[in-house]
Amino acid sequence: ALAVPSAPAVPAVPATTRARLVLLGLSLILIAVNLRPVFGSLSVLLPEVMAATGLGASGASMLTTLPLLCLGVFAAPAPWLARRFGPERTLLGALVLIGIGTVLRGTGSLPMLFFASAMAGAGIAVGNVLLPIDYRPFLAFLAESGVDLTDIPGWLARIGLGADGIDNDGD
Question: Most buried among 104, 108, 145, 167, by the most CB within 10 A?
């Protein structure tokens, strides 16, 4: 008699816990903070980069346009990547691309500068598409926790300034 293989067990989806949602929130803030510096950081140093590498005006134009071009090219596959690997893993990959691309831009090699700018631009493109999708569970958690969602920008600003606004006196 032939044995019929049993269906593989479906892994249980982990329950959304407070710790996971806090980690998600911190991850989203980290990603959001890292989406823009790649665009503005090079333009400040562009004259020095041009002088050090011998890069001409047309090359400098291509270098500063490359991350923006990547926004258009790499945003399109972001939803497919999210379906294939999950939005959290895809955002992690995007953040890794941004981080590695940002670090490699400082190697001093002109070809690596172009490659790393494209790498960081690809990560930013994917992050720009997926970040608005992935923060919904975190906002639901904040609302259930009694956080005034209309004051999130102020809340984040207070955290950034080191004054969390939490009343520790019990008053």
Answer: 104
Say which amino acid occupies 152.
I
pTM as predicted? 0.67
Distance CA 168, CA 87 (A): 37
Question: In this predicted model, what pLDDT tens digit does every residue of 3-36 receive, in sequence order?
Answer: 555 545 444 445 556 676 677 777 777 777 777 7
Q: Do the Cβ atoms of 119 and 66 come closer than 8 Å? A: no
121-150: pLDDT as tens digits: 999 999 888 887 756 666 676 667 666 656
Integer angstrom CA distances of residue 13 from 18, 87, 135: 15, 15, 19
Contact 119, 100 (CB under 8 A): yes
Residue type, position 117, single letter? S
* Rounded-to-integer distance, Cα 157 and Cα 167, Å: 16
| Interatomic CA distance for residues 126 and 82, integer angstroms | 9
